[in-house]
Design goal:
By secondary structure, the chain is of the alpha/beta class. Helix content is about 45%, strand content about 15%. The chain is built from 8 helices and 7 strands. The chain has a 7-stranded parallel β-sheet with strand order 3-2-1-4-5-6-7, with helices on both faces. β4 (about 85), α4 (about 100-130) and β5 (about 135-140) form a beta-alpha-beta unit. α1 crosses α8 and α4 packs parallel to α5 (about 150-170). The chain is globular, with a radius of gyration of 18 Å.
């Protein structure tokens, strides 16, 4: 299927590795020019070179922490007429809410709620004026089914989801959609780190914990980042113009509900 987005421009946050990189790669294969981002400049440069070589699209790297205003400003300067925005940022640490301070909460809200909102604010009016825009917020399956040890993430991402629910119904008439993409367990450093950390904290064997988690997934495996990236690319397509304000769960069937 031709997604109809060749020649478009995208900002993809936190895209030097993991799910963000998979999204950048999938968009690049569709002919989308990219502005990618990550905190590790060397890793980001390597990712940019590899994506450029594999896809032939223009790739601009903007190194820095996307939660900082200076980095967000640099992203927008590098892509002043963004057609696509992929909001993504590493999730906050796991743990017991009794141990979290006010500063921990503010940091989580800044990274996983306020930063995406700031980037939406910086790009959405231009999308509306040009009559095309696709905004995808990479959040978490915890939006659908909260994860006990990820309370900081549960709260911050739910806040972003609530905000987007209203805005997405205002922008869609201008062919600008905003959706959430909710990953379950994917083969990323972040996922392995969370589950191994939880296992160590409770005295369980980390590898046994991963095996037990895998067994709870009807698909019988963890997701591959490239699967996630392809799904993201479809949400950015011309064919997805009638889909907005939705939170789409990609978890191999792990969520047991009907809604």
């Amino acid at each position: 299927m031709d997604l109809g987005i060749a020649g478009k421009s995208a900002i993809v946050c936190a895209s030097s590795k993991g799910l963000g990189r998979a999204c950048a790669e999938a968009l690049g294969r569709e002919g989308v020019n990219l502005v990618i981002n990550g905190r590790d400049a060397a890793m980001l440069a390597a990712a940019g070179q590899e994506i450029r070589r594999a896809t032939g699209v223009r790739v601009v790297e903007v190194a820095g922490d996307v939660t900082l205003p200076a980095t967000r400003d640099a992203l927008v300067r590098a892509c002043p007429e963004a057609d696509i925005l992929i909001n993504n940022a590493g999730g906050p640490s796991s743990g017991d809410f009794r141990n979290w301070t006010r500063e921990d909460w503010l940091k989580a809200l800044d990274a996983n709620m306020l930063t995406p909102i700031e980037l939406i604010r910086a790009t959405v009016d231009g999308m509306i004026a040009r009559r095309f825009g696709r905004i995808v917020n990479i959040t978490s399956s915890a939006v659908k089914a909260p994860i006990e040890v990820l309370g900081l993430s549960n709260g911050a991402r739910a806040g972003l989801t609530g905000f987007v629910a209203g805005l997405a119904r205002q922008t869609v008439r201008h062919n600008v959609t905003i959706n959430g993409l909710l990953p379950g367990s994917f083969e990323t450093e972040r996922m392995f780190g969370v589950f191994r950390g939880a296992a160590r904290a409770s005295g369980r064997d980390p590898e046994a914990e991963l095996a037990a988690r895998r067994a709870t997934i009807p698909a019988g495996r963890f997701g591959r980042p490239d699967e996630f990236g392809q799904y993201c690319a479809y949400l950015c397509s011309v064919q997805a113009a009638y889909l907005t304000g939705q939170n789409l769960l990609l978890d191999g069937g792990a969520y047991p509900g009907t809604l």
